[in-house]
Structure formats: C-alpha cells, structure tokens
Amino acid sequence: MSEENLTLAEVHEVADPMRVIQEKLRACMQCGTCTGSCANSFAMDYTPRQLWRMVQLGLTDELFNSKTFSLCSSCYYCTLRCPRGLPLTETIHALKQLAVAKGIAEKKGARFYQTFLDTVRRYGRVREMELMARYFMIMKSPMLPLSFTPLGMRLMIKGKVSPEMPKFFGPGKMDAIFRKVKELEASS
After folding, report:
1. Whole-model pTM?
2. Which of 8, 45, 69, 141 has the maximum number of C-beta atoms within 10 A of its C-beta?
C-alpha cells in the first residue's frame, strides 16, 4: 500500500500517520479561506489556517490541546471553499482519530457522539434533553451539568429545547437501519 495514495481514513494503518496527514496538507498556501469560511472561528484559540500550519510543522501537543481542534463542527465549508481543493474536513477527522488512538485526546467527544447516535436510533431524531441527561450520566461528573446550566436555560427560554422529561426506555425506531449498518461494517 503506497502511503501517498492513502485515503485519510486509512492513515491509522501506517507507521507514521502524522507524516501522511502532513503530506495531505503540503499544498496549503496559508491563504486563510478556511478561517474566513469557518462559522466557529470566533470561539477558537487558533484560526483554522493556524491549525493547518501547526499540522505542517508537526506541533501535535499544541494542536491536540487547542480549542480549535475540538470546535470543528465538520460542516465541510472550509473544504468546499479551499482554492487548492485540500481535504480539510477529512484531515480533521483523521487528526481526531489519531489523537484518540494515541490517548492524547479525551474521549468525551466519542462518548457524546455515541450518546447522540443512541438517541437517534431510539427516536429517529435527537431528543436534546435525553441526549444531555444520558451524556451527563456517562461522564459521571456531578459538576459537568452545572457548567451547561446557563446555556440550557437560554435554549429553553428561546424555545430551542423542550423541558419535557426524558424517556430512557423504549423500542428503537431506527434499530433496523442501525443493525444493517453494523452488518455492512462487519462485512467490509
């Protein structure tokens, strides 16, 4: 398997995955289009352009500990607007996988994602109150819900989140689809 022809999903299979990721970003000319396109850049400690430069320079400690790394919402807007056509969103996915594989990144994101999928599997949509209640239980941190209280109150006041009580049990409406996906993943 030639390393230059690897897809970013296959990066974890090589001896030096960071080098492969750096190679995918070698053509980045630091134009800043990704930063100008990013809806979350206002909350990041490094702009997306700076993040890609850190990747090019191999600054993994700064990279994996930055807010930028965890605030990417994978909207693909940076990828769509990149004048060089670089796979930026795929690259951030590969970086996140690398960070988890190396034990660098916390597994909060993976736990949240699994909780999200469980809620979708159960109801066919996201039930925000149940999602957050389940996530807080999984995290086993009594102070974590308190840090989200102001945000939760604002969302409820604006009608974005319903204060209905979560239902923790019941048949999954999407179970058949999720089973089929697992079958397909197992066969490939």
Report:
1. 0.59
2. 69
**One domain for residues 93 and 147:** no
Count of domains observed in the chain? 2
Tokens of 182: 């697992």
Question: Token pair of 152, please?
Answer: 């939760």
Residues 159 and 58: their CA atoms lie apart, in Å, by 44
pLDDT digits (tens, 9 = 90+) for 43-81: 889 999 999 999 999 998 888 888 787 778 788 899 999
* 46 shares its domain with 116: no
| Angle formed at CA 171 by CA 166 and CA 177, multiple of 5 degrees | 115
d(CA 25, CA 94): 12
Contact 128, 119 (CB under 8 A): no
Same domain, 88 and 125: no
Regarding whether 138 and 63 lie in a shared domain, the answer is no
Same domain, 64 and 136: no
Instruction: Name the residue range of residue 112's domain.
Output: 108-187
Structure tokens at 38: 């990013």
Residues 71 and 120 both lie in one domain:
no
Better-predicted residue by pLDDT, 139 or 83: 83
- The residue count for the chain: 188
Dist. CA 97–CA 72, nearest whole Å: 14
